[in-house]
Amino acid sequence: MLILLTIPFAAAFGTATHIRLEHQALAATSACGVWALSAGTLLVPTTPTRTLLRRKRLRQWAYEWKQLDTPPG
Predict the structure, then answer these.
(1) Where are the domains of the chain?
(2) CA angle, 40 as apex, 38 and 46 as ends, to 5°?
């Protein structure tokens, strides 16, 4: 869609505006790509850590509930 919008601008204002719009589109696409890669880079290592901590917490809860079920003494 961006390419379709740049064609009339290029015809009306010359190639300098067309090239500028292409550079802006390229910059926006690059920024989105960098954001996606950095978000993935941060998310991938934290997911196994959260899973392991969740398992540990659930095991601790199960142990505590089991202790509550046993009679004292």
Answers:
(1) 35-67
(2) 110
pLDDT for 10-46, tens place per residue?
555 556 666 788 888 899 999 999 999 988 888 888 8
* pLDDT score at 1: 46
Q: Decide: 27 and 15 in contact? Cβ < 8 Å.
A: no
d(CA 55, CA 29): 39
CA distance 33 to 25: 12
CA distance linking residue 2 with residue 10, whole number of Å: 12
CA dist 48 → 37, 40, 58, 62, 64 (Å)? 18, 13, 15, 21, 24
